[in-house]
Design goal:
single chain; alpha/beta; Rossmann fold; three-stranded antiparallel beta sheet; 4 helices; 9 strands; PRTase_dom
């Protein structure tokens, strides 16, 4: 049996989702002076860069980017962040990833910030598949898809994959 890739979002639609998410983040943080956008390597960080670019155009927010590396296959939290964790204390954190499937990656990403005081922590995903095994939810979603478990959602970003597209197969 051959699998057929179906295009869910094209380059224009992905940018529209990013623009809308950036505006939602701004509305949620209109009284803030500074936020930290933390992207999960690799595509989550690429999306974080794009969100930061839009936010910089539409607001005066001071935005700091952080890159979170996780061992997604580990049964315990193994993570690294490229800025001192103390820089995140008492700040608004926006955690970004590309696809929410089981919720493990998002839960591990949230775990990075559990031992420090925060103003608030929000989560962003481009695609939410609604197959959560972990008690996580997203605050800002580009597209929520109802899929079956055997289907696979793939986000392609041109910085990594030479195209901007979301496929399901």
């Amino acid at each position: 049996m051959t699998s057929k890739k179906v295009l869910i979002l094209d380059q224009t639609q992905i940018q529209q989702k990013i623009n809308r998410i950036a505006h939602q983040i701004l509305e949620d943080n209109f009284e803030e002076k500074e936020i930290i956008i933390a992207g999960v390597v690799d595509r989550g960080y690429r999306l974080a860069l794009r969100i930061e670019k839009v936010l910089s155009k539409i607001s005066d927010l001071k935005i700091k980017l952080a890159k979170i590396e996780l061992n997604k296959d580990s049964s315990k939290l193994e993570s690294a962040i490229d800025i001192p964790i103390s820089d995140c204390e008492n700040k608004v954190i926006i955690l970004v990833d590309d696809v929410l499937n089981s919720g493990r990656t998002l839960a591990y990403g949230l775990g990075v910030f559990l031992n420090i005081p925060l103003k608030k922590l929000r989560s962003v995903v481009l695609i939410d598949r609604s197959h959560k095994n972990f008690p996580v939810s997203t605050d800002f979603v580009g597209l929520e898809l109802s899929t079956v478990l055997k289907e696979h959602v793939t986000v392609h970003l041109d910085e990594v994959d030479a195209e901007d597209a979301v496929y399901i197969d």
